[in-house]
Design goal:
Layout lengths: L1 H38 L3 H10 L5 H8 L7 E3 L20 E8 L2 E8 L10 H17 L2 E8 L7 H4 L6 H13 L4 E10 L4 H4 L3 E5 L4 E3 L3 H8 L5 H5 L1 H8 L4 E3 L2 H12 L24 H4 L10 H8 L6 E3 L11 E8 L2 E8 L7 H17 L3 E7 L6 H6 L1 H14 L4 E10 L2 H4 L9 E4 L4 E3 L3 H18 L6 H19 L1 H6 L5 E2 L5 H12 L15
Parallel strand pairs: 3-4, 4-5, 5-6, 5-7, 6-8, 11-12, 12-13, 13-14, 13-15, 14-16
Antiparallel strand pairs: 1-2, 2-3, 9-10, 10-11
Helix pairs in contact: 4-6, 14-16, 18-19
Bound molecules: coenzyme A.
The site of coenzyme A has 14 residues, from strand 5.
Length: 545
């Protein structure tokens, strides 16, 4: 009898795991479909148009720019979908490719306007993407290469892209400041760079222009004619020859894209090699197959998880050295803390476990661990799958607000590189304590299981329904059961839609939606890049404990 029951239970677990795998693989196929739209805006027709202009799709150029046979780690590929801008719903990939690749073995941030998307013009999301990549570059100390081919501001939205901080002007402010810090800013102009956009050529430490293809001027020929009556071609006004031979605003004249890419590589070939500022150990593969994560993570988002199993798939040798493993079972272990190595790099871990609700004990443990890792100058990985801190009188009286805010303070002030990976619910203040966007993680990755919103759809529907019911009652018209159900369903659909990784990725609330099979490689690269700068000394301010 016992044997039969055990066998039945084991087979139910095996079936559930197989179901999880199928579910997540299908979800990731949906991601692939969206990414295809981002990679090929306008389809073959747009590629043919580029070819007629003597241009290649930007990712081909990037492939030639980085070291042969090395990967390009592209960021935020699903940015810009479903934005609902006036007359333009989708801006595939935000109209701008950004990512990290190696040039002469140095990690470099690469930006490339995709002229297939509305002539590479800057929408609000394009700017947000540009700023984010510059912020990563500055934070991590990376040289930048800008492959510039843009119609400048998307003019129908000038008020949303031109005048403010983090708008158009900030691109050049960032270039100037990074250059002052010794981070090379190299521009390769492959097309038009008009008005404000011209500064991307002139602000560069060195800029390369292509004959008959690249133009840079403060006002294009139509504007010049209007303003001064002068009639002049784009080439004679601000082509490659003008700027490399007459104005001196650009530095290198090239005949075509191939030569220009080679010139950018040459400019960067004598850069000082940058190394990680931490002891790197020998890399070892995990003993558990990395793709087992597909089976471990339940399809139901709010179902509890075994994060130790996930860590075994990520860590070198599947070895996780856990801190306070036995502390307050059922409450303290809703966060698991410890250390592991990722491709030889030591990493401190704070990871949601089980249903992920953060109790006082878990918050205290996490805070202690953040402080310890900061003292040891070990970077931190936050694996987020938490619907929030524990509510209720017991928790409040035990000081959940106080200990939660200590955790938030520790996360805010930790000077070590921090990366957030979301593999489940990401709600409420748990988003803060687990190093959400506002806490400026060096990188923030979602998976298809991530759900980021102030609360879950079900909770939000409950709260909003009680408010709605009060309004109806005040008017003397109680809500019918049908009205209530319709209201609930509407709110759940809205919240669940807005929490989805596609919605968040479109708005750059993540730096990339990763497949489970990509996690180990991407996290290791993100830590490597984040560790190129010296780690400062810890300073945390006023804790309450
Ligand atoms: N704002 C809004 N839309 C713009 C735009 C801008 N600054 N520049 C180009 N577009 C749109 C075009 O209307 C066109 O839209 P459509 O596909 O819906 O017809 C699309 O982008 C492609 O432009 P197109 O002119 O066909 O591409 P091109 O490769 O022949 O020329 C430019 C590219 C950049 C040289 C040319 O579009 C241009 O000169 N744009 C104006 C640049 C300017 O003065 N900017 C000032 C910004 S501060």
């Amino acid at each position: 009898m016992t044997v039969t029951t055990t066998t039945a239970a084991a087979s139910a677990v095996t079936n559930a795991m197989a179901d999880n795998r199928i579910f997540w693989q299908e979800e990731e196929q949906r991601l692939d479909q969206l990414v295809q739209l981002a990679l090929w805006p306008g389809g073959q027709k747009a590629v043919d148009r580029l070819a007629k202009q003597g241009k290649r799709p930007v990712r081909e150029l990037i492939g030639k720019l980085i070291d042969p046979d090395t990967p390009f780690y592209e960021l935020s590929r699903i940015a810009g979908f479903g934005m609902g801008y006036p007359g333009v719903d989708d801006v595939p990939c935000g109209g701008l490719v950004t990512g990290i690749g190696k040039i002469y073995n140095n990690w470099t941030m690469i930006f490339a306007n995709d002229s297939r998307v509305k002539a590479g013009t800057y929408f609000p999301i394009t700017l947000k993407k540009h700023m984010r990549a510059q912020a990563i570059a500055e934070r991590c100390g990376l040289n930048c290469v800008y492959i510039a081919d843009s119609g400048g501001a998307f003019l129908p939205m000038q008020a949303e892209v031109f005048p403010d901080d983090q708008h158009f002007g900030s691109m050049f402010y960032n270039m100037a400041r990074m250059s002052a810090q010794g981070l090379k800013q190299i521009t390769l102009s492959t097309g038009g760079n008009t008005a404000g956009g011209a500064y991307i050529v002139f602000m560069a430490c060195q800029s390369v222009m292509i004959d008959q293809k690249a133009y840079s001027f403060l006002g294009g020929p139509p504007l010049v004619k209007m303003a001064t009556g002068e009639e002049i071609s784009a080439e004679d006004l601000g082509g490659a020859r003008v700027h490399t031979q007459v104005s001196g605003g650009a530095d290198h004249f090239c005949g075509d894209q191939e030569e220009a890419i080679a010139r950018v590589r040459e400019i960067l070939c004598l850069e000082k090699p940058r190394e990680v500022r931490i002891q790197r150990f020998e890399e070892r593969p995990p003993r558990v197959a990395a793709d087992r994560i597909y089976e471990l993570l339940p399809a139901a988002i709010h179902q509890g998880i075994d994060v130790r199993g996930v860590l075994e798939c990520l860590a070198d040798d599947s070895m996780f050295s856990e801190y306070k493993r036995d502390y307050a079972p059922g409450r303290g272990d809703n966060i698991v803390a410890g250390k592991m190595r990722l491709k030889g790099l030591p990493v401190g871990v704070i990871a949601s476990n089980a249903v992920g609700i953060i109790f006082v004990e878990a918050a205290r443990k996490a805070t202690e661990w953040i402080v310890r890792c900061s003292q040891e100058k070990i970077p931190l990985l936050f694996i987020q799958s938490s619907p929030g801190y524990m509510v209720g009188s017991e928790s409040e009286h035990m000081g959940i607000g106080k200990y939660g805010s200590d955790m938030v303070r520790a996360v805010s002030c930790a000077q070590v590189p921090r990366i957030q990976l979301v593999i489940g619910p990401d709600n409420g203040a748990a988003n803060y304590g687990m190093c959400g966007r506002a806490y400026r993680p060096h990188f923030l990755f979602h998976t298809m299981r991530a759900r980021t919103s102030v609360m879950s759809g079900r909770s939000a529907a409950g709260v909003l329904l009680s408010i709605e019911e009060r309004k109806y009652q005040a008017k003397g018209q109680p809500m019918s059961e049908e009205d209530k159900q319709a209201f609930r369903e509407k709110m759940i659909a809205k919240y669940d839609g807005e929490a989805h990784p596609f919605y968040c990725g479109a708005r750059l609330l993540s730096d990339r939606v990763l497949k489970f099979e990509e996690l180990r490689d991407w996290l290791a690269v993100a830590f490597e890049v984040s560790l190129l700068k010296e780690i400062g000394d810890p300073s945390f301010g006023n804790f309450r404990f």
